[in-house]
Specification:
alpha/beta, 6-stranded mixed sheet, 5-stranded parallel sheet, 30 helices
Length: 726
Amino acid sequence: MMTDQPSLEYDVFISYARADGRDEADRLYQEFDGAGLKAWRDERSIDPYQDFSGEIEIAIEKSQYVVVCLTPSLLAHYDDRTGKRKDSFVRREIIYAQGCEKPIIPLVFPDFPKGKVPTLINHLTWLDFDHFAEGFAKLMARLRKGEKYQARHSDDPYYDYLVALQKSIVRFLDSTVFTLLALHTAPTPDAVNAPPREVKARNLPMSFGGFDFAALPVKKTTVATVEEAVQNPPAIFNDFPAAFEHYGGRVLLLGEPGAGKTTTLMAYAREAVAARLENADFPLPLLARIMYWDAQQQPPLAKWLSTMSGLDFNDEILAGRTLLLLDGLDELGSELEDAKTKVPFDPRQRFIEVVNAVPSGNQVLVSCRIKDYGSIGEKVALKGAVTLQPLDDAQLTEYLHDEPALYAAIRADEGLREMSRTPLLLSILTYAYRGMGDKARQLENLKDSPGELRDKIWNAYIRRRYKHEKCKPNADLPFGLWKMVKILRFAAMVSTKEFVGNAFDNYDIERKIIDDTDAFIKQITSLHLITVEQHRYHFVHLLLRDYLALDSLKDAINSSIDLTTRLYAAQGLVNVSDSRRVDILIQNLNDPILIVRLAILDSLGQIGDSRAVSSIIRVLHFPYNEGLRWYINVILRFFIIILILMILLNILLELVQFSYRIELLIRCIMSLIILLFTCFIIIVGPAMRRRMTRSSAIRSLAQIATPEASAGIEEWKHKRKKGESG
């Protein structure tokens, strides 16, 4: 009888090579089922190099034992002399099981040389399965007896760090990968400043599919051949590891929002960690989100990474023995003010300078959104850059093979088809509308409204996730769907602060709810809406954050009560990747409060969307007339101030006995001050406000910098010289 462990869902995890071990795995599964044991095996037909999910690792965690089927095809994966490519998950499964301290039992099947048991598990007692029935009986005896975990000795001083990192990566992938898609990359040579010196040619043992960690032979490559390879890349890389190898392990990864940058980086990191756990001679993976780098203090990468982890990586980085995996350059924001000099600066430029200072022996991977990287004005000094490619028609057809209604909707509508070329949106769309038939066809009605279409997809995804979790036995969802979304919208709005990225704190949701915050976090984590990192909470993707934040920001900027909230919303819309943000800002250009109007103009300038040019030009030529409402508000406030001053003056005159003439003089001076202040407010004030509005409009047009914007500025200057402008 198996040990009762409530946290475990499976008795046995079956690890096997898909090339020649499927029959053995299927038979084991059936025999376990007949013996009353619950087993798990991977039944997918996915290329292991395009496996971006954490499904396998999570199943290992939920299993009590792991059995490894040793079949002939595995020999290629562990024989250093063959140089053959790895084509199974077995090695990764073994390493993860060891990190989870799972008891592992190797099963040697016919034609597998018994002296060739992989190094990872050659310290374990294997079972001979030349005769299946006899071998299975011995296996069951060992399981019933209670197999114990036998640790593999490791001299790696970073072993515990690597195991923890591996588990955190798996948690992230399990939360953020909704459905599986194969991704391609294309060279983008103009995006980097390749250093003039050549790095030392050496074996680059980093891949989640381009080549094998354990099986790749050491190549003696000359500087000339490396240089030639870098300068002559293929048109398309079928997977990212091939690109990483091609560019000598120093690569910039670019992509549109939702293209799979972070997923690609994290899946690559998972394989890099597995390689290091297997062999301490491989580079040490150091993973970090760039948004946590302090652009004010500008710490070197070694100091920053060491501070975050509590370990000292300085010697490893100086010696060139690390793989730096740096995600989300765009999340640093585009502009900050220096705390000392008060001069604006681009934090992304400062981070690029820090990356460029990293010793050349280290491998480096930096990810960034395409548009954000193009606006920096400085290039990172890496060997090469690749851009994740949109999905092509063949990939869409293959992926939606089992969803004819959804495929028909996408095929019939060009707008929906173009949106579906984004991997994240296609995977979300597939999850949300799988099996919904005619409801999927309704998406065609939104072909001219890409923003509303994205809203529909995310809304359906959240509802379906909630419904799926609600149907589970003993489901623990204390917050209803409506309340959960309301709180998430508030947290999303808060997270649009430029220095926060897509993260939020407990404090943010505590301001919105009085219930159990921990219960709320647990619920939205189980629904795969957020991930937890560095003691902060992140939406699984910026596109989800933007979907949740947009309506909240729209309501906030239209608020007639809270000035601070309106200012916050005007600034927050800059960081939302949705074209509708421009329409929201344009609609509020005539805000009666000057400071809000200036914030809106500044935001339109930062966004740089040409659609705002004509509206800003109108503001430039015909600035907002303060209007009757503004004057009434000013006069009311003015009279309240006068009343307070007169009361204070009378109290002062009562307390201090002045002569009649001095008292009269004081009253005259006060009346004159009030009169001058009134003239300033009513006459000079509006003129100053118009001038400030025009100056802000000109700055915004200069930032947008389209021909129409430049022409608008020149026309205004020309009219001003002639004295024609108001």
